[in-house]
Specification:
about 110 residues; alpha+beta; Nuclear Transport Factor 2, Chain: A; six-stranded mixed sheet; globular
Length: about 110
C-alpha cells in the first residue's frame, strides 16, 4: 500500500520512537485524542508520543488508508508491550495541506 509522504513519515517517526519528528508532522495548534485524553500543540504531542513509546515499545503497521478531502482514516496494527497486543486501531486524521491538524485514535 502506498501512503502519502506525510502519513508514511508519521508512521516511520512513530516506529523509530522519534517524538520530535512525529510532532513535526502536526500543525502548531493540532490536537490528538487517545485513551480518553487530549493533547494540544506540538510540545504536548511530542511528550505524549514519547511517553507512549517508552511505556509500550510499540510498532505500527499500516493496514488500510482512505482519504476524502481533508479527512483521512488510517487503519493500523499496533504491537507492543500492552495487554491485547497486537491490536487493530484507527487513526482518524484531519489534514491541513501536508500537516495534520487533528488525530483521534480509536480501537
Amino acid at each position: 500500500m502506498e501512503l502519502p509522504e506525510n502519513i508514511a513519515g508519521l508512521i516511520k517517526a512513530q516506529n523509530d520512537s522519534d517524538s520530535a519528528a512525529f510532532a513535526d508532522y502536526f500543525t502548531s495548534h493540532a490536537t490528538v485524542s487517545d485513551e480518553g485524553s487530549s493533547y494540544s500543540g506540538r510540545d504536548q504531542i511530542k511528550e505524549w508520543i514519547q511517553a507512549a513509546a517508552q511505556k509500550y515499545t510499540m510498532q505500527v503497521t499500516p493496514i488500510d488508508f482512505n482519504q476524502n478531502g481533508s479527512k483521512a482514516k488510517l487503519t493500523v496494527e499496533v504491537s507492543g508491550s500492552f495487554p491485547g497486543s497486537p491490536a487493530v486501531m484507527a487513526y482518524h486524521l484531519e489534514l491541513d495541506g501536508n500537516a495534520i491538524s487533528g488525530l483521534q485514535i480509536t480501537g
